[in-house]
C-alpha cells in the first residue's frame, strides 16, 4: 500500500511541500506519494479524510486556524499557539493536530541573533504569526504585532517611527507582501532606521531574496528568507507522522 501524504490549502499550485517530499520519497526509495489538496473551503476536508491510505497532512494558508475544529486531538503546543500546520492520522483514524512551524523558525533564527536583540516586530497577524510569537516566547524575546487594522496592544504601520525601529531589532514579515509574482512589493516600514544590529526575517521563500530583505541588506542588516524554516518544519512533520 502506497502511503499518502499531502498539503491542505487554497490556491497551492506552487507548494514547496509537494516538491520537497516528492524528492525525499524518491531519494530515500519510499513507497509514498505527496498530493496537494486544494480546498475551496475547509469543510471539504471531511471528503479528504475518508481516504484510509492518508498518513498525514501539512496545512497552509488559509486553514491553519480553521482546521482545528475538524480535529479529534490537539498537541499541547499547537493548542497554545492556536494554529496547526501538521495533522497526524492515528491508527484509530483519529486526527491529531501539531505545529512544527515554531520549531523551524526557532532553529533557523538562532544563528542570526545577536546580544542587542531583545524585542521583535511581527508584521501580520495570521496563522503563521501565532507560531512566530510562541517561538519568540521560547527565546525570551518580547514582541509586538504590527497590523493594518490593529487591535488593542498592536501597532499600526503608521505608528512605526525611528524610536520603535531602534528599539525592535528583529523584524519578521509574516504577511504575503512581496511573494512571487508581485516581488516589487514590500511591507511599509521606515527602512531608513535599520542598522547593522537588525535582523530582517521574511517567511516568504519565493523569491529567495525579497524587496524587504534587499532593503535590510542596504542598511547592513542580517536577513533571511523562509526556506530554512520550511525545510526544518517539513522534517519535523515527517518525524511526527512516523512517531
What topology emerges from the helices and strands here?
Blueprint: E1 3-9, H1 16-27, E2 32-38, H2 45-48, E3 54-59, E4 73-74, H3 76-81, E5 86-89, E6 95-98, H4 101-109, E7 119-123, H5 127-138, E8 142-147, E9 155-156, H6 162-167, E10 170-173, E11 199-202, H7 211-218, E12 222-224, H8 227-241
Parallel strand pairs: 1-2, 1-3, 4-6, 7-8, 7-10, 8-9, 10-11, 11-12
Antiparallel strand pairs: 3-5, 5-6
Q: How would you explain this protein's 3D organization?
A:
The radius of gyration is 18 Å and the shape is elongated. With 243 residues, the protein is α/β, with parallel strands linked by helices. The chain starts with a strand and ends with a helix. The protein is built from eight helices and twelve strands. The protein has a six-stranded mixed β-sheet with strand order 2-1-3-5-6-4.
The number of helical elements comes to 8
State the separation between the terminal residues, measured CA to CA.
Answer: 19 Å
- Relative strand content: 15-25%
Kindly report the spatial arrangement of strands forming the biggest sheet. 2-1-3-5-6-4
- Total number of strands: 12
Helix- and strand-based class?
Answer: alpha/beta
Tell me, briefly, the overall form: elongated
**H and E order:** EHEHEEHEEHEHEEHEEHEH
Low-confidence stretches: none
Radius of gyration: 18 Å
**Approximately how much helix is present in the residues?**
25-40%
Main sheet? 6 strands, mixed
What's the average pLDDT? 96
